[in-house]
Design brief:
By secondary structure, this protein is an all-alpha fold. The chain contains 8 helices and no strands.
Length: 186
């Protein structure tokens, strides 16, 4: 019997059961984004792109709290809940992110004079609008929307005392607080 070394070390390719899901011990950018989302929701998770036991426990706790199937797997329903229940200003946004907080960011940037498509996806045009806003407001123009940028957006959209009608100012503030509820806590 001869031993074929190439056969012995040839890698085997096992396709995941559901490629749209993230499983414990997966790695990569998608895992890092889930970890950021979990942290923004207040769960303890290390943002390292490695779906370890701590991330799995955070996913299970999130699933329990949101009445989802508790299995520690980030399926489309869990990912959708992570993105749609997130309050604006709770995580630093950057190009490639998506979710309800990106949607609110785009609406706020549009109220500051931009004409972005409000789709909840942080793309190139959203990054350019964020950079322009940051530069206009003496912030580091990185395109990453951190709590300082959220606070500046909140200040920029707050009505001033020169607004003609106080009733309109109260209505505008109410709408803004509804639009961006977490900003008042920064």
């Amino acid at each position: 019997m001869t031993f074929n070394q190439q056969q012995a070390i040839a890698p085997t390719s096992i396709a995941p059961a559901n490629p749209s899901c993230l499983y414990p011990w997966d790695t990569g950018h998608a895992v890092a984004e889930v970890q950021e989302l979990l942290c923004a929701h207040g769960y303890r998770a290390k943002v390292d792109g490695d779906f370890g036991w701590l991330t799995e426990e955070a996913v299970r706790a999130f699933q329990r709290r949101h009445n989802l199937r508790v299995d520690g797997i980030v399926d489309p329903a869990t990912l959708a809940a992570l993105k749609t229940t997130l309050q604006p200003g709770c995580r630093t946004l950057r190009q490639g992110h998506s979710g309800a907080d990106v949607y609110v960011l785009q609406k706020a940037l549009n109220r500051c004079g931009n004409a972005l498509t409000v789709d909840g996806v942080f793309g190139e045009k959203t990054a350019q609008a964020a950079i322009a806003f940051q530069a206009q407001n003496s912030l580091t123009p990185s395109g990453n929307v951190c709590p300082l940028t959220w606070k500046a957006l909140y200040e920029a959209l707050r009505p001033t005392s020169q607004d003609a009608q106080p009733e309109r100012s109260r209505t505008t503030m109410h709408r803004l607080r509804r639009l961006v509820p977490a900003l008042g806590r920064i």
